[in-house]
Design goal:
Length: 300
């Protein structure tokens, strides 16, 4: 983005952010905390499939209230992850709405944004070519998070734990194809993360069943080390806990859509990491309540 265009988009985003800040006024925010706040090592909020859209008026109430509810637990939350499909069709207005909420309503810093198929046009060139939409997406990430990334895949370290974010290499809808370049990078990141001896958390918008090119190597890499967790979105499913194909039974955690399923509106996870376990606690951010749908993994 040019500096003038960047200034213009940030100004509009701030304006929209002020609008979204008004929506939760009067909302009761429930306090919440980890199961064991004295011994927790890492606490992440994980959301997915927000699908911000320019005329999605019902979402204008849901999304700000979900993010505002994070004020009830911000004392204990180390970071926020949004696991892709932040928009409907990667339009500028959707991105400005999305970042307006993240920067003005959401209280959690830092936050990390994975890329879903809708964030690069959902394979519909009416909204732009893959390269154009990739650069648009990266431009917003660089501009609003100050992360100088040049690819749709990247990694971060929070409290010593490695978070690895995978992304699309080609236009996509329901299938993600991985290039050898990204898989080489992924393997190097896994090797580096494994040196810490701590669990590794991999965020990929598409579940294993939606991987096309690069599938065999992708699965092999996920099963390379103990205590690797794959966290996905895309399916708009209820809270669901599966395993990556293979004898290792690497956990695959399916994140519900924050706005896309009437039965689970507002659902996401509080991911609590302890010395000997990782717990995914399903939280309804719209109503501010834990649902009781939890999964505990004992570390090897």
């Amino acid at each position: 983005m040019t500096s003038i265009l960047l200034f213009f988009k940030k100004a509009i985003s701030i304006f929209f952010g002020i609008f979204f800040m008004m929506i939760p006024i009067g909302q009761k925010v429930n306090k919440f905390e980890p199961l064991d706040k004295e011994n927790i090592k890492l606490n992440l909020t994980v959301m997915s499939d927000i699908h911000m859209e320019g005329n999605g008026f019902e979402k204008f109430e849901i999304i700000p209230k979900c993010f505002n509810s994070l004020n009830g637990g911000k004392k204990y939350i180390d970071a926020l992850v949004v696991d892709g499909d932040n928009s409907i069709c990667a339009q500028d207005i959707e991105n400005m709405f999305f970042y307006g909420v993240l920067n003005n309503v959401n209280p959690i810093r830092p936050y990390y944004i994975a890329t879903g198929n809708h964030d690069i046009g959902n394979n519909d060139e009416e909204f732009g070519t893959f390269d154009e939409l990739k650069e648009r997406h990266l431009g917003y990430v660089r501009s609003f998070t100050d992360k100088n990334i040049t690819e749709l895949y990247f990694s971060e370290v929070v409290n010593g734990y490695h978070l690895i974010f995978l992304g699309p290499d080609t236009p996509e809808c329901h299938v993600r194809n991985f290039s050898e370049k990204q898989l080489d990078w992924f393997e190097a990141e896994l090797d580096k993360a494994a040196e810490s001896g701590l669990p590794i958390f991999v965020f990929n918008h598409h579940p294993c069943g939606n991987i096309g090119e690069g599938y065999d190597r992708f699965i092999s890499l996920l099963n390379k080390y103990d205590n690797t967790f794959l966290i996905v979105g895309h399916a708009h499913y209820v809270p669901y806990f599966d395993t990556v194909p293979g004898e290792k039974k690497t956990p695959e955690i399916w994140t519900p859509s924050l706005t896309g399923n009437d039965e689970t509106i507002g659902y996401g996870y509080q991911m609590e990491v302890y010395e000997n376990s990782v717990i995914f606690r399903t939280y309804d951010y719209y109503t501010g309540t834990f649902t009781g749908t939890d999964m505990t993994y004992t570390l090897k």
